[in-house]
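Q: I'm building a small set of examples for a reading group on sequence design. Run inverse folding on the following structure and report the sequence directly after it, with nothing in between.
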């Protein structure tokens, strides 16, 4: 239903008496008095005066009497008009004062007072709706009997103002008490008459209501409604401004996805909680929670369902908080919880156990049950830090430690974690400088053909040497390089250097050998690895058959369809493909046969148990047989004893790599080995 919109200008016009109507009233009154005098004056004089002499004398003064009577009539009519005009001017003045009042709560209080005064009402209020259905309203300002009253809630439905949902105004001159329930606030105030207008925004959506009420029947609807419209227009504008500010404030302090406080609000609330804990001498726990493998969930289900997982989990966390402490969604899949007035570590452990139990309940997403786990770090005030910055950092360190220990567990902060975290930071800084200072060197570990006993290929291994330390193990810095993104330039440098060196050996007349280069998970999924390999081969001039790429088993099975597409692109380039560390991941043999892979590399953890560990021997023999059945060759790495070599040769393993044959060599030493093998 479209409502007719009345502007404040129209309302002001209605307040003031119309000029032509007033002039017509005065002229009509004067004309009527004149006609009556002309028609009736002689007859009236003849009835009351019979003396001819007195009658003649009175006829002389009849004109003066007419002027006197009509003058008094004019005075009365003008006085009455001016009084009405002055009253209207006072009302307009009061309206102008209300419109030009201050903003905020003070504005609404002043406005309610002006309303009651201008309309001579017992009560006036301005209320805003608190629910989307516009059924429940709460007063913003309430003026009652010349003083500010307490704000209260009231239902629009069932009251004398219920028609505001479909009408622009609601007029009830009397009998208000009989039109609503006895316990309604208006009934308790003994209201008899009321006038209400809906407060609407520029799109005519109902925001609230402005209402004047009297304990006596109300009259003069036109004048009262015209004045009220002026106030209603200003109040609606102010309500709309407040709603916009409230929305902006919520955007600044609340997470749009989960509805929880965001990082900014959490920091402010956490600082306040710390202040209270200092004053009371109590403990406070900060819990840092991060979901495990959330990126895998997003990659598998898509961003929309990933967001749904966050929303559902946020609801569960909120239920566990049960109004105690503070819960916030910081970023991505990270949440922070603040528990005030903690008595003991056991209390925190009990609460976290409830959290984990709630999280472990499967989520229903796209018709499937989804299980999620979380890694949690805890820092306790005052033992683990005196300020919010330190506590947040230490809780984050503890959470990272939980991730490193296999995820899905809880770690309380201890100083050893901080020292380890500091060492990681130092290592990261050194890693950045190492790229700039050319501190990385490639070593080449040769591989032995077990059936022929000759050199057959090599693996390029990176070595980091630095002044004051001979070298860093790749297991120390490669995971950190992946985490920081340095693996991208580092991996490209390894690939380029290995291909370039292999090409130089061939140009020097040395026998060609295939060089194997490791590819990280980040390189494989976050970069176009096929395009990178093609460019490097083009720049170095190396024939693709002399390059092999080693990809770990766990990387290949993250996204089967994407893996197959990428491997096919690399195969089409002519590059040989190797599955590294085979047997340590979660392989599916049904998928393995679909991969365009030429070689399986048995992880050294199995080789180390040969020949004494029957399980390792059985697995190794089975892998060799399976690989040959799939037309793949097999390389065993980490071979260090003659007994291991003999067993592998008997099992039919194609190649071996390890210190028994040769340690990793620098390029010049490997060139010497190539010369000796060719002799």
């Amino acid at each position: 239903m479209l409502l007719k919109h009345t502007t404040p200008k129209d309302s002001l016009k209605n307040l003031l008496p119309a000029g032509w109507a007033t002039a017509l009233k005065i002229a009509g009154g004067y004309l009527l008095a004149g006609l009556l005098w002309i028609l009736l004056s002689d007859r009236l004089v003849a009835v009351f005066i019979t003396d001819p002499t007195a009658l003649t004398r009175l006829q002389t003064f009849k004109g003066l009497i007419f002027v006197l009577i009509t003058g008094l009539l004019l005075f009365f009519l003008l006085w009455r008009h001016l009084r009405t005009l002055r009253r209207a001017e006072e009302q307009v003045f009061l309206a102008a004062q209300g419109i030009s009042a201050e903003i905020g709560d003070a504005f609404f209080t002043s406005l309610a007072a002006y309303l009651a005064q201008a309309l001579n009402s017992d009560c006036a209020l301005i209320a805003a709706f608190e629910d989307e259905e516009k059924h429940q309203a709460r007063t913003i300002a309430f003026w009652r009997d010349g003083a500010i009253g307490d704000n209260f809630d009231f239902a629009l439905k069932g009251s004398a103002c219920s028609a505001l949902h479909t009408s622009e105004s609601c007029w009830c001159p009397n009998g208000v008490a009989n039109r609503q329930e006895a316990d309604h606030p208006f009934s308790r105030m003994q209201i008899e008459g009321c006038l209400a207008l809906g407060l609407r925004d520029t799109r005519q959506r109902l925001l609230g209501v402005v209402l004047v009420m009297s304990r006596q029947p109300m009259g003069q609807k036109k004048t009262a409604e015209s004045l009220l419209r002026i106030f209603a227009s200003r109040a609606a504008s102010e309500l709309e401004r407040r709603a916009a500010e409230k929305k902006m404030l919520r955007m600044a302090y609340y997470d749009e996805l989960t509805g929880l406080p965001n990082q900014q609000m959490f920091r402010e609330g956490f600082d306040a909680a710390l202040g209270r804990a200092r004053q009371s001498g109590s403990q406070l726990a900060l819990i840092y929670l991060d979901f495990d493998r959330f990126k895998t969930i997003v990659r598998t289900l898509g961003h929309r369902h990933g967001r749904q997982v966050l929303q559902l989990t946020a609801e569960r966390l909120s239920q566990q908080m049960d109004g105690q402490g503070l819960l916030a969604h910081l970023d991505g899949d990270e949440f922070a919880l603040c528990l005030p007035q903690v008595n003991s570590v056991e209390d925190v452990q009990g609460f976290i156990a409830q959290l984990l139990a709630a999280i472990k309940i499967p989520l229903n997403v796209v018709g499937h049950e989804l299980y999620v786990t979380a890694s949690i770090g805890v820092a306790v005030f005052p033992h683990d830090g005196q300020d919010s910055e330190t506590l947040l950092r230490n809780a984050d360190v503890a959470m990272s430690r939980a991730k490193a220990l296999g995820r899905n567990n809880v770690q309380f902060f201890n100083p050893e974690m901080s020292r380890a975290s500091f060492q990681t930071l130092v290592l990261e800084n050194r890693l950045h400088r190492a790229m700039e200072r050319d501190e990385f060197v490639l070593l080449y570990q040769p591989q032995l053909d077990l059936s022929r006993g000759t050199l057959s290929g090599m693996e390029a291994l990176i070595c980091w040497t630095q002044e004051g330390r001979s070298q860093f193990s790749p297991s120390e810095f490669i995971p950190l390089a992946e985490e920081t993104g340095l693996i991208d330039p580092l991996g490209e440098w390894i690939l380029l250097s290995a291909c370039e060196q292999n090409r130089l050996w061939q140009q020097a007349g040395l026998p060609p050998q295939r060089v194997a280069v490791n590819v990280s998970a980040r390189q494989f999924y976050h970069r176009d690895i096929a395009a990178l390999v093609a460019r490097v081969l083009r720049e170095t001039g190396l024939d693709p058959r002399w390059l092999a790429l080693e990809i770990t088993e766990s990387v290949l099975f993250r996204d089967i369809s994407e893996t197959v597409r990428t491997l096919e692109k690399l195969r089409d380039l002519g590059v040989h493909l190797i599955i590294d560390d085979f047997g340590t991941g979660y392989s599916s043999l049904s998928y393995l046969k679909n991969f365009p892979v030429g070689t399986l590399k048995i992880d050294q953890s199995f080789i180390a148990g040969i020949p004494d560990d029957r399980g390792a021997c059985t697995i190794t023999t089975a892998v060799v047989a399976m690989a040959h059945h799939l037309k793949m060759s097999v390389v065993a790495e980490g071979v260090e004893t003659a007994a291991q070599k003999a067993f592998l040769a008997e099992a039919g393993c194609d190649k071996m790599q390890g210190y028994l044959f040769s340690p990793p060599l620098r390029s010049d030493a490997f060139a010497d080995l190539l010369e000796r093998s060719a002799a």
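The domain at 105-252 is CATH 3.30.450.40 (Beta-Lactamase).
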